[in-house]
Each structure stands twice: as structure tokens, then as C-alpha cells.
Amino acid sequence: MREPTYFILAALQHEPGHGYAIMSRVAELSQERVSLATGTLYQALDRLTKEGLIEVAREEVVNGRARRHYALTPGGRSALQAEATRMAEAARVVLKPRLIGGTA
Amino acid sequence: MKGRVYPALLRLYPAGHPRDEMLDVLFEAGRPMRREVVPLALGGLRARFGSDQPLAVKWLYAARAAALMLLVIQLVGTAIEIATGRPASTVLILSLTAAALAAVAVGAGWRVPAPLLAAAAFGLGAADLGDPRAVTACGLAAVLLAVPGPRTPVRSPLPPLLALAATMPSALAGWPLLLIAAAVVVWAAVDERLVLAVGLTLAVSVVQAVAYLPGNDPVLVLGLAASRLALVVVPLALGAGLALRRSRV
To answer: SS3 for A54?
Structure first.
């Protein structure tokens, strides 16, 4: 899973969010490392919706314009959990090598 | 400035895209325009002209486009030769007719007639004193069309234009060919299927190098084969790399 995708899914893990909220949460969660341009964000949202990882949870009208709120699907939540577990295990190899080797 | 540029770029997106919502996000984020413009334009072009199909399907679309290019090259190239004095036997005319009908069949999405007609053009071309272009181009086109896949090739004017430029006399073909080839490479940022199609089309030059070895000089033959192989590998590697990257979630 690519890093922007991971943080977009992570941005939606607790509650649905609209485009700007997702963009802000991604920047915050990644400590400003991943800063998505609007075009990139909406390409990713489009792709993730087609892949069934997120869905449009609801639409509202703000200042006369439609605004979609995106939410994780069960498949998206599983994919996010699997990726987080994979990265945690990979990180453990480096951060706590002696525990893994059984010599601590 | 942003008030004019962003709505203009958002018009690149097809209807049904949340353009209004994107415009809100663009203004809300308030980033410098130089950071937003390129991803916004690329996103619109990809949404309108690109492909979000699985990797294998992209290859199949590219194979159909390559077959169409090969048939056009065979057709126009041989027609130019006849116009400039090549004797046109009945078998050659029949081969050309079959190639023309095959090209129409590919464009129209007739799945079964297309490979059969390309194979007929191949057979007739081989019968006509082994016409090398018919044997290699139509043969490869028939093989590419025989693979089950989408009905139509990639919808773009670039493959037929590239094929036409490739058949022009070398004195005229240079710049147009180079410009169209550059356009295909640039367009790979939007749709990588075209650059894959070009790579598959150029495979015919390897087939020709192997089928019609020039003389007995092994160094010359190896050099020719290597240079033609590079012509195939470079576009295929570029297209496949981009397609693979975009297929990752």
C-alpha cells in the first residue's frame, strides 16, 4: 500500500470526513510529510471508492454546493489494519531486535 | 487569478466528478497555485482519457491498438510502394484488401473477423513472393488480435497518426515521427496504454531483423537485433512501469 493511501485510510478510521478534512488529517497524521494536492487527493478518493476501500457515507449542501463525506468500508478497515500490522512488524525488527532474537 | 484558473482546469474532469466540491477544497486549502495546477490538470485528463482498468486489461487494449497500427503501416506502406511503381499482383491486392478489412474490423470491435482477416492478409502476403511487410506486420497483428480481450483498441488519434508517419518516406517522416513519438511519451503521464502499444508495434522490427537477416556478418546481425530490441524494450518498460505503479492502491 502506498503511503498517501495509508494515511487517507487512517484519516477516516474514526469518523467520516470530507475532502478538506481528509487533506488536513493526512498532513497532521503524517507530521506534514504527506501533503496532498487537491487533484492527487481526488484521484486517490476516486480510486479507493472503485476499489471498495471507502464509500460516500453522506452528502450535504454547504453554501449551495454539494459536499461528500467519505467513510471506510469494512474492506478498507481490514486493509488498513493489515498494513499497520505489517509495518509494525517490520519496524519491530529494527527497533527491538534483541526481543526478536530472544537474547534480551 | 485562482478564480479563473481552477474552474477552467476543473472543466477537464468529466461530468459526474465532484467539481464544485474540489473547487471548495482548492480555495479552503489556499495553497500556492503552482502546487495545485499540475496534479489538477493531470487528474482531469486521467479521469477523462485514462484507464483505471486492471493491469492485464490495459495490456489487452494496448495489443489491439498495436494490431491496428501494424495493419495501417502494412496498408499505407504497400499502397505507397504500388503508387511509386511496385507491380501489384492480384494476390497482393487481395492481401491489402484483407488488411484494410481487418483494420476496419479492429476499429469497429468485430472480435472474430479481425484476427481472421489479419491472418488472411498474412497468408496472402506470404504467397505474394513472401512480401516481408505483410508477413511480419499482418502476422504479428493476427497474433495480437487472437488474444481474447476488449473489443476495441485504445481510443486515441495518436496510434493511427504514428503509424501513418512511420510509413512516410524517410525524408518527410523524421520530424513528424519524432513529434508524435514525443507526444506518446508525454501522454504516458495520462494513459500508459499508448506507449505500451508503441512498444508492441515496434516488436515487428525485431521479427523483421530475425526473419530477414542481412548477410552473414554475425556482428552486424547482433548489433541490428540489439538496437531493435532496445526500441521495443524502452517503451514497454516505461509503459509497464507506469501501469504497475498506478495499479498499486
So the answer is: strand
